[in-house]
Amino acid sequence: MCIYNNTSRRAFVGTISSAVAVGLAGCSGNQSGGTETETEGTTTDGQATPTETQEATPTESETYMNGVGPDASVSFDVPSSDAELTSTYVQWKATADGVTIEKAGDVTEGAGHYHILVNTDPVTPGEIIPTDDSHIHYGTGQTDGVLELEPGDHTLHLQVGDGVHKAIDLVDTVEVTVRDEASLSLDTTVDGSVVEWDVTAENYTIQPASEGINSNAGHLHALIDTDHVPVGEVIPTDARHMHFGDGSTSGRIDLAEQLGDEYEPGDHTIHFQVGTGTHRATMVHTHTTVTTE
Q1: DSSP sequence for the chain
Q2: Is pLDDT of 156 > 80?
Q3: Hey, where are the domains in the chain?
Q4: What are the DUF4399 domain coordinates in residue numbering (predicted)?
């Protein structure tokens, strides 16, 4: 699944490339089947061999970096290493240092976009990152999102790819445990066109949007007579999508006032859906149908 409309144990795969480079240096020589002779510091094909004062080191062609400097890094801010997550809708946020995160398309030196690899090894630098359920692309250049994971233990790799999804040697890794325990319950009363509501969260924290992105937490949105927002997409702000970014868990909605000319007495369905600190939708939600006058 490639996401273009959205939706930490650390491991670094540079050691793999170093091992390959050393192996290649040790295999240099005449492979035609003839007699191989060597002098100190060279092979029969004129290639240099490591000496006590010369060590084999990987080159840019052996470890693809797309112009990113050797001190660059990426990391998961959320989730943290060994996090215990109460929802299968897993929020993530990442930080990059020394590399520009931008949308996919053009290949820009020193830049790329994020991919999250689920329960699979990082992609060898220089190879194209696949598009499937284990390799999730964030080609919009986003630096946060929402993953859907099954309950259980998972290994997540954050890996940068260039504009055409060629893997760069920038990886961070976390292992998390996911449980399906978070839930919302809802009580409502109706008086005319006014709906009083009260949401209770279990195994989840309702917090102000200003608190940012945190595991097992988010803020409420009320969706009136419209479908819930797909996971990872930003919840709109309009008459049918109300944001409670102050962290409210109760309140009142005057549907006649909220919907204006579109309001009609009768049945109305209201979804309460949790969004992240950047208003990306999770499916921690509840809903009800009320009858107004």
Answers
A1: -EE---------THHHHHHHHHHHHHT-S--SSS----BTTB-TTS-B--BTTB-----TTTS--TT--TT-EEEEEESPTTEEESSSEEEEEEEEESSEE--SSS--TTEEEEEEEESSPPPPTTSBPP-BTTEEEETT--SEEEEE--SEEEEEEEEEE-TT-BEEEEEEEEEEEE----EEEEEEEEETTEEEEEEEEESSEE--GGG---TTEEEEEEEESSPPPPTTSBPP-BTTEEEETT--SEEEEEHHHHHGGG--SEEEEEEEEEE-TT-BEEEEEEEEEEEE-
A2: yes
A3: 2-12+64-178, 183-292
A4: 95-179, 200-285
